[in-house]
Amino acid sequence: MDIKLYNTLSRQKESFKPIIDGRVGIYTCGPTVYSRASIGNFRSYLFSDLLRRMFELNGFLVKQVINITDVGHLTSDASEGEDKLEKASKATGETAWDIAKKYTELFLQDMERLNILRPHELPRATDHIEGQIELVKVLDKKGFTYQTSDGIYFDTSRLADYGKLAGQKLEDKQEGARVEVNEEKKNPTDFALWKFSPKDAKRQMEWESPWGIGFPGWHIECSAMSEEYLGVPFDIHTGGIDHIPVHHTNEIAQTESAREKPLANVWMHNAFLLVDNGKMSKSLGNTYSLDDLQARGFDSIAYRYFFFGAHYRVQQNFTWEALEASQNALHKLQKIVKGLPKGADVNEEYKSRFMERINDDLDVPGALSVLWTMIKDDNVAPELKYATLIKFDEVLGLGLSNLELGDVEVPEEVHELLDLRAKARAEKNWELSDQIRDKILELGFEISDGQGGQTIEPIV
Ligand code: AMP
Ligand code: ZN
Questions:
Q1: CATH no. for residue 56?
Q2: Which terminal Cβ of the chain has fewer Cβ within 10 Å, N or C?
Q3: Which ligand 1 atom sits closest to the C-alpha of 30?
């Protein structure tokens, strides 16, 4: 079946053609591990997980790489400001290495809570310093670089098509760029490939290089690591839309100048998650993590279901009410699956309708509507419904095939009480929450409040 993907580079949907038949390489820009990843960040990884699962459903052998940025990402996406890791270290007193370790572990735990399949490779920037230095050396040799007092920079005026990903001409970009702090740069769009450690202070993360002790710029890690794990070019590069004008533009500039080949054939970008129709921001206290959702009684998988409510290229607005609606829909779906007799045969017609939607640039809202139509369709035998839903779940990843209750039917009353209890917990009404737990116990089910929210088990 034809797979169509929107390519930011060509600004249109294209039929996907793999570099090697039956295989696909996907690189996703990963987290900067200086703080807890927010549900906004996870929109990016839910999106690349969906992409991977779609390919797997189509029978592709996928290799997925997500990098861990643990050095070089400065407080400004341009090459200025403080390294986010070193800054977090100053603020907390922990070492930059410990901070990186802590947030990498949390990131992986959160990925698991969201049923995001573990990428085949999770390379860390600090483990690939040599490869990054090698790449800068090539650029140096080819005359794309120059040195300033604080580092080695890429001269963007050397590339006629610099900025093509964002559809901007260099002159427009330069005009748009804000007043430069660094007056030694030849062009405002030039960016650091290697930065020198400050003369008056010792950095925690620094390495020797042919140009002096320092650390790599942020963009070079992705050029070096994508090449190491996927080659040049590879199939698909993904990330959030904020990466288009600077980070991905600069990755392209580096790799294409060094290797004289495209970096990736398809560039895909997810739109942002808003909260209450505004930007997520630390100052507003709305950069929610999965723990914040859990504290209000929401399972992480409910957020996964919420993510499916909007196409990845459309901004999505997060509200607690919308998350609750998603959780309710998910519970309804779980209940339906639990109530169906297990079967092995799939309804081919609905499967192909579902795949048609998902293969059309990951139209998950469309695919979900096929799912609900099938559920309501009396012409499909219950055993077939079961097997088809489990097949769909290979893409959706809602865990429908291993619902903990197995064959035990949960009465409607218990479902309603569970919803009430989730609400009571969201309102921190612990007394009511405990009363409801006791009622549910009387009906034969024991509740536990784990990492993923409330789960119940029948008392035997
Ligand atoms: P960072 O850890 O800051 O490098 O960001 C990790 C990923 O999350 C990047 O691909 C960003 O584009 C993406 N991202 C950050 N904020 C949001 C948001 N509010 N909605 C969707 N994606 C986001
Ligand atoms: Zn990147």
A1: 3.40.50.620
A2: C
A3: 6
pLDDT one-digit tens code per residue, 105-123? 999 999 999 999 999 999 9
Does ligand 1 lie within 6 Å of residue 43's CB atom? yes
Token pair for residue 116? 């995001």
Residue 195 sits in the same domain as residue 300? no
Ligand nearest to the CA of 73: 1
**Ligand 1 atom 17 nearest Cα:** 40
Confidence band for 136, pLDDT divided at 50, 70 and 90? very high
- Give 41 Cα–ligand 1 centroid separation in angstroms: 4
Domain count of the chain?
A: 3
In terms of domains, do 83 and 111 share one?
Answer: yes
Burial class of 178 by CB neighbour count within 10 A (0 to 12, 13 to 18, 19+): exposed
**pTM score over 0.85:** yes
Q: How far apart are CA 240 and CA 224, in angstroms?
A: 20
In this prediction, residue 441 carries a pLDDT of: 87
Residue 249 belongs to what domain range?
A: 18-270
On whether both 177 and 317 belong to a single domain, the answer is no
